[in-house]
Amino acid sequence: MRTPYKKRHSLAAVILAAGESKRMGRPKALLPLGEKTFVEKLISDYQQVGCRPVIVVLGDEADQIQAKIENLDLLIQINSQPERGPLSSLQIGLKAIPSSCRGFFFCLVDHPAISIETLQRLIEKWRANPECAIRPRFQGRGGHPVLMGCNWIERVMALPHSSNARQLLRKKSSEVIDLPVSDPGILIDIDTPLDYQQFLIAQADR
């Protein structure tokens, strides 16, 4: 199901939330984080920095997740074969990006701790380098999200299902800018109940 979207903006965001969440035991998109869920927090963050549309790609548990977010200002795309992996979801999301957009973020729904400041810094760097892919790094490690110019869409769409976006970035490294940030949230990946419990404890201690 696709939600109509007619507004024109230069930057989109694609949130991948089609996974089975087997290790978590429940949809990671709907895990509570304060007064919001993971997916609601990410939608809000990307909208706050000016991303329109925000595109959420759903697969397993689509009905349950969609019921939580369908009244928000976004596009919903469905991956009918989520077992093919995150690349298939990203490719579905990219098809929904309007031609008016010049760039797009993409991230996984289990990376909810990225700061607004990091998103703003990535946008600033990208606007000075609109043909490049901008990747945040914390203490020498690359993380999420990645911000790409829309000239990368054709490249991502051409990737075989056995590949992934990381391999593309490696292959086109001369067109990738690594941006050092002071945000450990770019590395936080919530996959298991223990990950989630430790994450909530760390958030409470901040």
> Biggest sheet, in brief?
8 strands, mixed
Low-confidence stretches: 1-8
CATH C-level: Alpha Beta
Assess the beta-strand content as a share of residues: 15-25%
SS field, number of helical segments: 7
CATH fourth-tier homologous superfamily: Spore Coat Polysaccharide Biosynthesis Protein SpsA, Chain A
**Broad shape:** globular
- The CATH topology name reads Spore Coat Polysaccharide Biosynthesis Protein SpsA, Chain A
CATH architecture: Alpha-Beta Complex
How many domain modules? 1
| End-to-end gap | 39 Å
Reading the helices and strands in chain order gives EEEHEHEHEHEEEHHEH
Strand tally is 10
Rg from Cα: 16 Å
| Percentage of residues assigned to helices | 25-40%
Overall pLDDT: 92
What structural class is derived from the secondary structure elements? alpha/beta
